[in-house]
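Q: Here's a chain of 1102 amino acids. Please give me its 3D structure as C-alpha cells.
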Amino acid sequence: EISKACSLRECSLHAGVDGARFLSVHVEMSMGAPSVNAFPLYNYEWTSWFNVDHPGGRGDYEQLEAIRFYYKSRVCAVPRALEARTTDWVPARETGETVHADPTVGFWCLNEEQGPERNCSNYAVRFLCPKGGFAVNECPALCGQIGMQLRYRKCQSTSVPCIGSKVEAECRLKCVMGHVNADCDACMCENHMVLGSVRGQEDCLCLCVWVMEALYHLFSEKLHVSSNPESKIRREGQTAAFCCKVAGTPPPDTYQWFHNNSLLERQTENTLVVKYLQAEQAGEYYCRASGPSGAIKTKPATLRVIGMGFSSLTPTPESNPIRLPHDCFQNSTNSSYYDVGKCPPRTCAGQLDSGIRCKDKVSYCCGVAKMEEKQLQCQGYQLPTMVVTKCGCQKCVDTKSVVYGRAVAADNGEPMRFGHIFMNGVRIGRSGYKGTFSVQVPPETERLVLTFVDNMQKFINTTKVLPFNSKGGAVYHEIKLLRKKPPVIISSIETNTFELGEVEGQEAMVQLQIPPHSFYTQSGEVYTGTVNASVTFLDPRDVSTAAAAQSDLNFVGDEGDTLPLRTYGMFSVDFRSGDSNEPLNAGEVKVFLDSAQVTMPNHLDNMKLWSLNPETGLWEEEGSLQMERKKRGKREERTFLIGNMEIRERRLFNLDVPENRRCYVKVRAFRSERFLPSEQVEGVVVSLINMEPTAGFSTNPRAWGRFDSVITGPNGACLPAFCDDQKADAYTAFVMANLGGEELEAVSSNPKLNPNLIGVPQPYLGKLNYKRTDHDDNRLKKTAFSINVAKPSPNTAEEVNGPIYAFEGLKECEEAPFSAAHFRFSRVEGDRYDYNTVPFNEDDPMSWTEDYLSWWPKPMEYRACYIKVKISSPHELNVRSRNMGGTHPKTVGQLYGLRDTRSIRDRDHGLGSTVSAVCVEFKCSGMLYDQERVDRTLVKIIPQGSCKRDHVNTMLQEYLVNHLPLAVNNDTNEFTMLAPLDPLGHNYGIYTVTDQDPRTAKEIALGRCFDGTSDGTSRVMKSNEGVALTFTCGDREVTRQSVFQSIQGAQAQAGSSVVRGESKQGRRRQRGSNASRNSRRRSTRDPTGRRTKSQTVNAYAN
C-alpha cells in the first residue's frame, strides 16, 4: 500500500507476449520526457503452461480468473507479465493473428478478428511471478503533488545444487543480464534504476505495481538495411533527395554518404539532399551506416542529370521483330518477322513537383506515345497489327511482384503440408496440402527473406532469400527442405558428443561436444533432466544438398560490404526438455571440424563459426576456430579446428570461410533454339552451384561450396561465382535454369562444341570446358551445364568480352550487348503460337499500355481462359482460336489475337490411339481497359483439316442459350461462341483463372484443363475429362483452302453476321493513344515431358 500522499499519473501495463525476458511498462512522468531504466528479472520465474479454453465458439479465452479457479494458487496475485504460444509451440507474435493480452486479466483471441474463413489457434499461456516480494518506499510527494521514487536493486543468482564430488572448475554461472562477479556467485547489474509514478484515487490510497521496461537488450542485433536510396532522374537546377533506413540494436549513430565511391563531407544524416544539380553530380550515391553493432552499406542509387532543353528519352522506338503466322511471309523483308517497335523499359524525368522526398510521388517511365495500324498481306487475307511509332514519358504502370512455388523435401519431394511462412518474424501465409505457396512481395522490399516452418516437425526451419522481379510479375521457386533428424535422448549431466557427416563411407566432418550441466531453460535456470536432442547436418560433400542450403551465404563485413561465404557444412539443432518438451539453450558447446576436410591452406586460418539471422537472411559471426591436435579413442591422432559456441535463440549454424576470389557469369534464356535477341525470356530463375576446386589443386571435386540464384531481366542475368586467375580448372560450377517449375534446356556439347550455339567463341570456350550434363551419358537430363570458372585475363582479347567477368565488372556484365559472349538456355516448347494485335510482353507487366484491343485489359489482374477440345483423328492436329470484339461498340468485328495449339495424345488410350485433346486459350469476356462496358469476346474454335463438330457440352450449350446474344453456328467445321462472362468450370469444359501474373494464370488454368477438374492440376492430358467440344477429323484434302484463309477472306463479314441482333455494318474502334510492346507466348508446359521439333508455323500449311 502507498500512503495517501501519492498521486498516480499513468501506469499502462504491457504483457510480454513475445516471450521477452523483461517485464514492460511505459511510465509517463510529469517532469520532462519519460524516463525508464531496465531492471533484471532474477527474482522472477515463469509458471507452468495453462490451457483452459479452446478456439471454438467466439475464440480462445485464457482468462486469469478461470486459470485460478482450476489451478488454485499456482499463479501469483499480481503477475508481472504473460507469454502465449500455440499448442504447436508457435509464439503468439509469430502467428500473424490478432490477439490481446494483459497479465492482470489474461489472454484472449477472437475468431471474428482473424479475417474470413480463419479462426484463432489454440493457445496456452504462462505468467511471470516474483519469487519473493519487495517493499515499496513511501512516495515523497504530498497529496495532489507529483513525486518520484528511486529503487536500486542488486541481481543475485539462484544457487545451483552441486551434483557429484567437488572439483575445481571454471565458472559456469550464466547471467541472463549483467556480468558474473569475481566470486562466481552473483550477476552484477550496475546502475539499474526503476522509475514510477502513481495516480490518486478517491481516498488517495492505491497499489503501485512495479513493472520495468528493458532499455538494454541482452543480445545486440547486427545492422541491416531496411530501405535503400532510390534512383532518380532530374534536370539541371533541380533538387534530389536520397534516403537510407538502417535498423539494428543499438541503432546506428553515424551515417556517411558517398558519390561515385568518394566520401561527401559534412553529410552525416540518413537523408542526403543535393540542390541546384549540375551534370557533374550525376552518378552513384550510397549510404554507409555504423554504430556499436557494426557497419553496413546500402545498394547504390543512380542519379541522372538532364541538361535544360534536352529530353530524358529518345522518342524513336527500338527494334522489336515479332514472328508472324506461317502463311504470312513478308516478301518485302524476305522474312516471317515484322518489326512492330517498342519503347525501352527505362525511367524518365516526367513532371516533378518541387517537394523534397525520399521516394518520388509519381514514377515516370518511357512508354508508347503513338501507334499506327498496319495491314500485313498474308496468303489470302490481311493481318492487322499495331506498330509503335513514337515513345514518350508517361506515368509508370503499377505492378505487383509475387513469388510462388512449392516447399518440398530435398530427399524425396514430400510436400510441407500446411506449414507456416514468416517474414520479419510475422507469419504471412501458409503452404497448401501439396506444399504450394504464394506470397505478394510488399512494396519497397529490397531483399525478400522468408522462413518456412513445418508444423509437423518433419523438416528443419528453412530460411531462404528469394529473388523476385521488381518490375512486377510472378517468379516460381521450389523450396527444398532438409528432413529433421529423429531426436535422441541424452543426459544433461553427462558429456554428449554428436558426429556429423552424411556421406556413406567417409569420415564425419564435424563433432559437437556438449559438457555436463550446459543446458538451461529459456528463463536462465540450469536444466538437469533428460534432453531430446536433434542435430541435422547439411553435408556439402553431397552435391544433391546444395538446393537445400539456407539463405544465400552472405555476411556483412567490417566496412559494411555484403560479402560471400563458402560453406563447410551447416547444422540445425533442436534441444527440448524430456518432461515438458520446452526448448532448451546450451552453453559452452565445442565444435570440432576435421582439418582433413579443409585442404586449402588459407581456409584453415580463416575458418569461422556463423549463425543465421532469420529476419535478415544474413550470417553473423559467432567465433573463430583454432587448430588443435586431438586423439580420437584408440585411433590415430588427428588435427581439428576447434571453436566454442552458445546455443540460444538461433538454432542454425554454419562453418564458413570468407572467399574473395569472385567473378560473374553471364547467362541468357530464350523461347526457342533460334536464340534471337527478341526471344529472350525474363523472370527465369538461373542458379549456380560452386563446386570445390579440382582434385590435385585443392580438395574433393564432388563437394559444393556455394549456391546462388538470380532472375533474368531484359538483358539476361549475371550470377556470382568463385573463380581463379592462376588455374583455369581451379573452380567449377553447375548452372541450371527454371521457369514456372519447368527446367530449361542447355545447349548441347556432344558430339562436338558449337560456339555459335553456345554463345561463347573459341578458344575461350575450350578453356572454360563447357559440358552439358548429358555429355558423357545421354540418359541424363539436358537441363544444366558445367564450366571451369576461369577468371578472364585482361591481356587476352577473346576473354575481355564475357561470359566471365571480374567481380568489379558487374555493371559491365549487366549492360553487356547481345553480341558479347554469354551462355544460353532455351525453353522446351510445345506446339503453340500466340499472336496479339496489340503487342505485349508477358515477361514484363510494365509494358502494358491502354488500348481497346489489348488482350489483357487490366494490369495487375490477368484472367486466363481455356476451352478443352477432344479430337478423334489418326493425327495430332492444330486447333486455332480466333478472338474478335463481339459486343463492345469500339472493338466489334476487330481482331484481338490468335492462339494456335497442337493436340496431345491421351496416354491412357495406348500408342495406337486415335484420340487426342487440346486446351486452347481464348480471350476472356469482361471489361475493357476503360472499365466502362463489357465485351463478350467472339471466339471461333477452328480445328485444322477436314473436321466435323460432333458434340457440344450440354451445360455449355445451355449456358450460351440462356445468355444472349447467341452466336451463329451454321458451320460444323468449327465452333463459334460469345465467350461467357462467368468463370464456369470443368463441368462446362471452360477453365478460368485470375492472377496478378499472366504466366501464373495460364499455368494454373492449363493444369486444370489438362486434368479436367476445377481445382486439380496435371501435366498429362486426360482427353475424357472436362471436355467442351468434340470433333472428328480425317486427312485434309490437299486442294482444300486453309481454314484460316477462308475465314479471313471477307473480314468485314466476320464481325457482322456471326452475332444475331448486331448491326451488319462493322464499326471502327476509337483507339487509345498508347499501346504496348510485343510479346509472344508459347505453351507454358509440355505435358508429354518430351521436346517436339514440329512447330506451329506448319499448322495451316496448304
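Q: Can you summarize the key feature?
A: The first strand starts at residue 11 and ends at 14.
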